[in-house]
Amino acid sequence: MKKKVLTVDDSRTIRNMLLVTLNNAGFETVQAEDGVEGLEVLEEANPDVIVTDINMPRLDGFGFIEGVRRNEKYRAIPILVLTTESDAEKKNRARQAGATGWIVKPFDPTKLIDAIERVTA
Amino acid sequence: MASKKGEQGSLKLPAVLDLNEATQLHGKLMSLRGKALVIDASAVERAGIQCIQVLLAGAKAWGEDKKPFSIAKVSDAFQKTLQLVGMSADQLQAQEIR
Amino acid sequence: MDMNEIKEIFFQECEEQLAELESGLLKLNDGDRDPETVNAVFRAVHSIKGGAGAFGLDDLVSFAHVFETTLDCVRSNKLEPNQDVLKVMLKSADVLADLTNAARDGGSVDDSRSRALVKELEALANGEVPAPSATVEVPAAATAAAPAPTDESGFAPIPFSFDGFDDEEEAIEGTVYDVTFNPRPELFAKGNEATLLLRDLSRVGEMSIHCDTDALPSLDQIDPEGAYFRWKIAVKTTKGEDAIRSVFEFAEWDCDLEIKVQEAATDAAERAEELPMIPVPFDLSMLDGAGSEGDADGEEAGAAANATATTAVAAAEAVSGIAKLAGAASRGDKKDAGAAATAAAQATAAAGAAPTIRVDLDRVDRLINLVGELVINQAMLSQSVIENDANGTSSINMGLEELQQLTREIQDSVMAIRAQPVKPVFQRMSRIVREVADMTGKSIRLITEGENTEVDKTVIDKLAEPLTHMIRNAVDHGVETPEKRVAAGKNPEGTVRLTAKHRSGRILIELADDGAGINRERVKQKAIDNDLIAADANLTDEEIDNLIFLPGFSTADKISDISGRGVGMDVVKRSIQALGGRISISSRPGHGSVFTMSLPLTLAVLDGMVVTVAGQTLVVPLTAIVETLQPEASAIHSFGASHRLISIRNSFCPLVDVGRILNFRTTQANPVEGVALLVESEGGGQRALMVDAIQGQRQVVIKSLEANYTHVAGIAAATILGDGRVALILDVDAVVGASRGQSLKPEMSLAATG
After folding, report:
1. Do B46 and A75 touch (CB under 8 A)?
2. Set of chain B residues whose Cβ sits within 8 Å of the Cβ of A75
3. Which of C246, C320, C617, C729 is 20 to 30 A from C353, comparing alpha carbons?
4. Cα gap C712→C719, rounded to integer Å
5. Do B20 and A121 touch (CB under 8 A)?
6. Start and end of every Response regulatory domain (chain A) (predicted)?
7. Chain B residue with the nearest C-alpha to that of A74
């Protein structure tokens, strides 16, 4: 059974890179453009794992993660945060918001897939 | 607890035993207290630690109640998960003593 | 999709982000302190940095990084975005744009400029941020980054002395690590799972495990989401401690974790006695979500089949829906269909931001071309039906009317695809204003209005150059220096206002400055000096103002670096004319000047009046025509050898013989036998164009002559009429210009006015 990944990122470039990488690795991919849309599609997507950016309009990554963790049904979904190397502070905030792990940008495909494999069964 | 001997409950575990399922499972076990219990774990695909904790607590409770608590059918995945976390299916059994 | 395509997307996105960045910075400059504005600005730079990193565009990344850091200070209220700060930021935005362009097109960037800005940005960031907080971040980042590279390195240094082992043995045997792992409930709440961590740990090496369940409360007391199990694990691996630690990378904050090398002296059997360790088999691939592969696949296949069936049904319904719509349309229920379409459009609008797609421009152009052909074809069909069906009552005629209506609607819709807001061009102008103001030491504020006014993409593309020139001109020549402004009792900060709006099927772009206005004395003197006008010429203020559009005119005493560059307003005027537009100026001394440009919304179709001149069919753009009139002999007055005037309501207007000017005939036509088209030319003057007869009005599809043949003086383009004949579209301004004595040949007109 294909694992389903929900990606949340406002950058079209990053969305496309995620899509290509994940599809090539045999994942099913659902994409949202910001935190609000991410929460909206959660029910329908019912993903096995979520990959989200931090800086996004309307609802940022922290808010989105908190939203997922508050959701009775989906709170157990592992969430990986896309972050840049230097953002130790952001990493911590993301963890406090309930992130499962992180992927350092710019990601290379193996790192991304590896991180996803680590948090999913 | 004046339960009649021979009264038997059964519980089929769902495919995914995750964080959300732990509370459900706990509730189900609580409602089955006092009955001899046979658990069917044949459908389990994914088992998290918290459900295993609940099951183990259940086995202990049944042991204290001196009621049988057994896992009848075990899926390969469940079996291997138990092995991985350093447990065995035997630990999740309680014998009826005497 | 491959990486090149994604890179293309990245650059497109960069353009959008740069526009977002600039407009955000300008808002901040205007005193906007909405946190969302700051966030949007930050995100734009962050997003460019992120994408650039993915493509290894290091220059872009490093500059964006410094910029981002400074913006972050603004975001966290450590740095007040005052005018000085924003000046640096706006310049940085310009450099970021340059770096982006260089990354895409391979050009080079002014290194010294970007280096200087990096320093300024860093100074801003450091000036307000206490140094310690910056140094705290570094080790944290280093720790986080550390595990990754050692993953594959095989031998990591082991902080222990192995006297008893030789290297070879160690490599084969590996080192045994004792791992204590006590998860806390937060670990689970964050979506981590101990079973998965243990799974990954088992992959690091040979593993034995003991699960300590002593802390488990009774069933009554247990918190189902608590964390009660603890583990003692022995892992034998050659990969080193870091490999083990990296397994817990995501979890180490939420568990007590201890990893140490097992003491060699410890007797394995002894240990086994105190803690029963269960060996974990190496192959636990069953946990990789493949639990019941066969069943799942079966289900999936079933679901897929179902989905396909559903889709098919939906598709069938959609098709029948289209059939119904088509039926409705063919029955003549056009209004209903139209209403439905409008309702649908409104529904889309109501649903917030309408979904958009990106389409290759070539595809749109192909479609536009085809629709153009369709329009022509439809016109030809109509004509032949009318010719062959004299009584005109057949149902074919009614059908044709429908067809005509539909064709027109399709055409409008297709044109709308190409329509885009002028915003990007307007945004580019603010950079020009900044740079020129900087160079000339002026303080100028650009206000833009109507940025969302839409116009054909071709028009937008071609608008940038003349507009740039005009803006440079307005800043360089229009607005005075702050000292002069203060002396004149004005705000030292000058204002340049750029406005776009739709007016009667055209787009009107106004560029207004609050500078000194045209110095008419000087302009006139310059024109006389340059032999552009006679020394005794009697010109109205308006006519004097419009002298600046004459070729070779420049009022600046010295050709400045900014608006000089060898081009004058005549070039601007010609570019606007080439777009089928008009430009004029009005000026109030001491109060500033307003340039007004009127441009067609599209370059693909044109509403024209079809006329006959010397047996030739010509099309005159309807927008140029003010009115048509039948001249009477009494209204015609000769003036000079070949000049004639026509009196219209007590004013005189030069009569232009189109046939003569285009060399269709050698003798002058008799005005009384023809029709006069009163046209407005730039500069406001009116001329009466003489043609032989009017055939009618119609919309024509413009076919470029340059593309198919070559440029013909006095002719703007060509078209194909309904009867299949080719007709030429008149270039009204060129013809009017020629009537003033300027030759129609461009190179000669330059020589004449040199």
Report:
1. no
2. 19-20
3. C320
4. 14
5. no
6. 4-120
7. B20
Show the domain range for C580. Answer: 422-600
Give the single-character DSSP code of A104: E
Q: CB-based contact (8 Å) between C294 and chain B?
A: no
Contact of A70 with chain B, judged by CB distance below 8 Å, is answered with: no
User: What is the domain extent for residue A27?
Assistant: 4-119
Question: Do A73 and B46 count as a contact with CB atoms less than 8 A apart?
Answer: no
DSSP per-residue codes, C438-472 = HHHT--EEEEEE-TT-EEEHHHHHHHHHHHHHHHH
What's the number of domains chain C is made of?
5
Query: Which of C564, C584, C600 lies at the terminal end of a domain, its last residue?
Result: C600
Strand C625-629, strand C675-680: pairing: antiparallel
Of the candidates C600, C616, C641, which is a domain's last residue? C600
**In whole angstroms, what is the distance from residue C618 CA to residue A47 CA?**
65
Q: Does B46 touch chain C (CB under 8 A)?
A: yes
- pLDDT for C338 equals 42
Measured CA to CA in angstroms, residue B95 lies from B6, B34, B69, C214 at distances of 14, 13, 7, 20
pLDDT tier at C346, thresholds 50, 70, 90: very low
Find out whether C623 and C508 touch, Cβ atoms under 8 Å.
no
CATH superfamily of B8-92: STAS domain (3.30.750.24)
Contact B11, B51 (CB under 8 A): no
Nearest chain A residue to C195 by CA distance is A121
Q: Supply C96's token pair.
A: 């970021």
Q: What is the pTM of this model?
A: 0.56
Strand order in the sheet with C651-657: C625-629, C675-680, C686-691, C651-657, C643-648, C636-639
Please report the DSSP string for A56-69 in residue order: -SSS-HHHHHHHHH
| CA torsion, ordered C189, C195, C199, C205, to nearest 10 deg | 100
DSSP state string for C203-249: HHSEEEEEEE-TT---TTT--TT----EEEEEEEESS-HHHHHHHTT
Paired with C621 in beta bridges are C608
User: CB-based burial of residue B19 (10 Å sphere; 0-12 exposed, 13-18 middle, 19+ buried)?
Assistant: buried
B39 interface with C at CB cutoff 8 Å: no
Query: Residue A102: which CATH number?
Result: 3.40.50.2300
pLDDT band at C143 (very low <50, low <70, confident <90, very high): very low
Q: What is the token pair recorded at C663?
A: 């060399």
C637 lies in the same domain as C538: no
Q: What one-letter code names the amino acid at C226?
A: G
Q: What is the DSSP string of C533-578?
A: S-TT----HHHHHGGGGSTT----SS--TTTTTT--HHHHHHHHHH
Among A95, A112, A6, A109, CA closest to A50: A6
Q: Rounded to whole angstroms, how far apart are CA atoms C689 and C681?
A: 11
C686 and C713 inside one domain: yes
For C:161-200, CB contacts with B below 8 A are: 183, 188-189, 193-195, 198-199
Co-location of C624 and C732 in the same domain = yes
Other beta carbons within 10 Å of C118: 18
How does pLDDT run across A23-47, given as a tens digit for each residue? 888 888 899 999 999 898 888 888 9
Contacts of C253 in chain A (CB under 8 A): 95
Q: What tokens were used for A63? A: 């808010």
Whether the CB-CB separation of A101 and A80 falls below 8 Å is answered with yes
Q: Which of A84-88, A105-109, C91-95, C574-578 has the lowest mean pLDDT?
A: A84-88
**Could you give the ipTM of this predicted complex?**
0.87
Helix axes C83-105, C35-54, angle to 10 degrees: 30
Residue type, C375: V
Q: Which residues of chain A does B19 touch, with a Cβ-Cβ cutoff of 8 Å?
A: 75-76
